[in-house]
Amino acid sequence: MNPFQSLANLASPAPLASLANLSILSILADLADLANLRGSLVSNGSLWAGWPTGFWAQAPVAIEPKWFDQASLWLLGGVLGLLVASFIVGQFMGRQPETSVSPALVQMFNLRVQAWWLMGAILVAGLLLGRVGTVVLFGLVSFWALREFITMTPTRRGDHRALFWVFFAFTPAQYVLVGLGQSYYDLYSVLIPVYASLFIPARIAMAGDHKRFLERSAKIQSGLLICVYALSHTPALLDLRLQTRVNGELAPWSGSRPGLLFYFVLLVQLADVFQFAWGKLLGRRVIAPAINASRTWEGFIGGALSTTVLGALLYWATPFTLWGSACMALIIAVMGFAGSMTMSAIKRDRGVEDYGTLVQGHAGVLDRIDSLCFAAPVFFHLTRVTVGMAG
């Protein structure tokens, strides 16, 4: 079976009869044959001494890491199973009388399922292309998200030169440095927060237009920081050198880093789903009605706790222990919520409902990755500090 053809089939809402013929096990076998690339971890260096590594790290199963290991394939298979089940539920709901199920609710659910199929297929296709392919994929997503962010608000002629540098110099440079690996961490971690943030206002000032200067500069700086710098930490996970404790001794972690990336993206997306579901079931107290009327305290707390439990259950796909994975999942849920609320506030300020319409069922790209943008740098740095290898 051609794995790319399998992914193409999965990306579209195929008829129920066609889905019944799909074999998840055969798809996973194709993935393993195509992308089970072996590498070597750098074993020298010592852990940053200030953190309790034993709390976070678990013993590895294998000695040599794989691009896709058995744990990551099980995780991928579980996600495929959930998507198939969601499609079946959506088709079943669509056949029910309108008096029993709201047609608007069914349509929204089916559109979301279609969007999840598409996004899942794109992410897996990027991982199949290896680390460079994944970095390029996220670079393109950042470029499009930044475009949505910038076009949401009006710009002046004096901003055009600065925007050229933002789109065609700093954005690709950030992802090139991420693609070059951890050896360039000291540079890509400061390229945008320091150099780009200083360059943008200086370049706008040189254009000679002082009207709303601070607002224009801050808008471009914020867009670059959120859409490019923050999101670039997601593919940067693929180059982390991680370690764990084996019988009290430090040793390289032999798990799949693509599996860790998939674990992170999965928790971010499911945290949004859990918060939405709990808000619909128990939501009474809206957190900020003027910002997002659908976000309630009950939904936030229920979603965060549900994500924490799920993170604990998925600890076997990570270098963390059960409790360490639960703590990471809770942090992911909180940061994802913060991202969603922040981007909603920006939309309300600009008087728009969505950032775009590229992804059917989820409006624009930035609407879909707002949680990811806020959670990615926090998860990356916590992972690097707690279970990362020095050097």
Briefly characterize the structure.
This protein is mainly alpha-helical. It has 16 helices and 4 strands.
Question: How do the helices and strands line up, and which of them pair or pack?
Answer:
Elements: H1 3-11, H2 16-21, H3 24-35, H4 53-56, H5 70-94, H6 103-128, H7 130-151, H8 160-180, H9 185-188, H10 191-206, H11 213-230, H12 233-236, E1 243-246, E2 249-252, H13 257-282, E3 286-288, E4 292-296, H14 297-313, H15 322-350, H16 365-387
Antiparallel strand pairs: 1-2, 3-4
Helix pairs in contact: 1-6, 3-5, 5-6, 5-13, 6-7, 7-8, 7-11, 8-10, 8-11, 10-11, 11-16, 13-14, 13-15, 13-16, 14-15, 15-16
Written description of the protein model:
- The protein has helices at 3-11, 16-21, 24-35, 53-56, 70-94, 103-128, 130-151, 160-180, 185-188, 191-206, 213-230, 233-236, 257-282, 297-313, 322-350, 365-387; strands spanning 243-246, 249-252, 286-288, 292-296.
- With 391 residues, it is mainly α.
- The strands form 2 sheets. The protein has a two-stranded antiparallel ribbon with strand order 1-2. Strands 3-4 form a two-stranded antiparallel sheet.
- A hairpin with a 3-residue loop joins strand 3 and strand 4.
